[in-house]
Amino acid sequence: MLLSIKTKLNLTSEQKTVMSKHAGIARFTYNWGLATWQNLYKDGYKPNKFLLKKFFNNEVKTQLEWIKEKGICQKVTQYAFDQLGAAYDRFFKGQGGYPKFKKKGLNDSFTIDAGGKPIPIGGVRVKLPTIGSVKTYEGLPHTTTTKLSISRIADDWYIAFAYEVECDPTPKSVDVVGVDLGVKELATLSTGVTFPNPRAYRKNIQKLKRLSKALARKTKGSSNRHKSKIKLARHHNRVSNIRKDSLHKVTNYLCKNHAVIVVEDLNVAGMMSNHKLAQSIADCGFHEFKRQLEYKCKKFGSKLVLADRWYPSSKTCSNCGCKKETLTLKERVFKCGHCSFAIDRDLNAAINLSRLAYGVNAF
Question: Which of 212, 180, 193, 142 is closest to 332 using CA atoms?
């Protein structure tokens, strides 16, 4: 199975400068390719990444000495064109918007390889092609990879790569579990276990507002504005990490201990259209929850079942099976009008979901 890992690099100031140069070259190449693509299209041509890459290497790159500077990996430009081609492919398929020009300091990243040769990984040091050896804060698994992606978040640099791993199914203590996702409780299991929602964004929104105001008051282009920008980016990253940490803990618990996991196929985009709930729903990370379940079920030997998004799990009585016509969000306790059965609303939905374990839409 192919897994990926992303970890923070422990770089010196000189190494950070080298990383910034690579990110700058990748950004310049991407923007040049996007501008040239647009101009050729206006002139009636049908450009592609291979045509742009060939012209750039033969005509443009030879005149730019700063790209050929010592210590710069020349594979950076190749992957910039690949990313541009992938962006256009997503646009043509209706999976994304039209590609935009990249800005300095915003999502800086680049990808390198060793010319098709495997790159050894392991321990707290990684030898990058051309760049040299860099340190990490945590030990990495001893393996090899074909390419490495390096990105910047705030003022820190991170390395990411994919590698092959053999997956061993874990022994399961529960055969089937239904999972009801919500805003109050992040996940309620049919076994009665609940996981609280960390509400990472809501708990930190006041500090985010304060840092945003401080950034807006700084003079554009000043050193203090740059420092304030880094502070805000670091706090945004902290909020994101709190959310990801809670999601990883919940999905690990589910996939390690349950043979079959049933969750709703939520229409997250539709739920976000409700402006009263959009912030709270975005703070939960439902899409990321489902994404983690999909690959962790394969990793730990579990089975994931997606219930139809129109299945009335909350409105159906888990005791007699009768369906209520109306159920408002304020009703946190489900009371059946047919059998007088009363149960927590989320637990009732989770139990109903668990009964769909061997239905359709199974992975």
Answer: 180
